[in-house]
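Open question from group meeting: does this chain pack into something compact, or does most of it stay loose? Before anyone orders reagents, we agreed to write out a predicted structure and look at it together. Recording both the input and the output here so the notebook holds the full record.
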Amino acid sequence: MSLTEIIEELPKLTPAELAAVEAKLREIHRAPVPPSAEWGEALLEVAGTAEGLPADFAENHDHYLHGAPRMHLRTHRLSVFRRPSLAPKG
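Structure tokens returned:
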């Protein structure tokens, strides 16, 4: 049963049934949330499981997903640290 169907059924319930639904909702809401893995642990579970991706996918994901120009990590790092406009003249 979908959420919409459940909500549509609520007006058909008797006051006692509505009270029971309310009590159950309060009980569920108070229940402790089961512990979940930390983000790092969750990511490690799936790390390296993708198959069929290009070798440079991590470096160029914007290229593959959005069509951005490819970046070459070594070139990009040099361009960040050695901008021609900041290079010493002479």
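Observations to bring back to the group:
The two ends are 76 Å apart (CA to CA).
The first helix runs from residue 3 to 9.
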